[in-house]
Design brief:
Elements: E1 10-14, H1 18-31, E2 36-40, H2 43-47, E3 54-60, H3 61-66, H4 68-73, E4 78-82, E5 95-98, H5 103-117, H6 129-132, H7 138-148, H8 153-160, H9 164-178, H10 183-192
Helix pairs in contact: 5-10, 7-9, 7-10, 8-9
Length: 201
């Protein structure tokens, strides 16, 4: 059992590319809303901020290579950010995440990592109660599941034997109830709550 002390468990992003770090932070906060995400531009900055308190390190390749001893000891907690999908150019001892892809692909990779590393979430810290509550009706859950699997409104209407206008209404209600603006955010919610299998996305 991990003891996270008080407050939320924390993730560190160590990447000298500020834009990349901030973009990843935004996505991680959507994927794992129970985590606090801190960003550091260098290993030195991380070292000055209680590095042992972090649950995971999302780290640029060059920073891992320059500080191999530190990350090697913590390789279960380290995810190396790479720009290439080519497995030959990735570090074999570490989990790697290619960040040079579309938002959808990146989210899917993070969700795959999260499910793989945390045994379908069972090693994850518990979700806050507000996120555990069932917010959507059964019909809305069905519609959401089809949306995140890439079906268009007309196909959803045909599959569920409901009118197109009804699908559009459900879609709007789902987004409003969950406070989400994009299908990417909806995908994260659906996978994290077990409404849809990551392999169907």
């Amino acid at each position: 059992m991990h003891n996270f002390g008080k407050g939320r468990p924390k993730i560190a992003i160590i990447d000298p590319n500020t834009l990349s770090a901030l973009g990843l932070k935004q996505i991680l906060q959507n994927v794992v809303p129970i985590m606090t995400v801190d960003t550091y531009g260098s290993f030195l900055e991380l070292s000055a901020n209680k590095p042992e308190e972090y649950f995971h390190y999302f780290t640029a390749m060059n920073i891992v290579l320059e500080n191999k001893a530190f990350f090697q000891k913590r390789r279960q907690k380290t995810i190396v950010l790479t720009l290439s999908r080519d497995t030959m150019s990735q570090l074999s001892d570490f989990n790697c995440l290619c960040i040079n892809v579309t938002e959808e692909e990146l989210i899917r990779s993070i969700l795959m990592l999260q499910q793989h590393a945390h045994g379908h979430g069972e090693h994850m810290p518990p979700m806050p109660n507000i996120l555990k509550n069932k917010i959507l009706s059964d019909r809305e859950i069905e519609v959401m599941s089809l949306i995140v699997q890439g079906y268009i409104n007309k196909e959803i209407a045909d599959k569920l034997n409901i009118g197109l206008a009804t699908v559009i209404t459900h879609r709007k209600n789902i987004m409003d109830k969950l406070g989400m603006k994009s299908v990417s955010a909806l995908t994260i919610y659906a996978v994290m709550h077990g409404y849809v299998d990551i392999n169907k996305i």
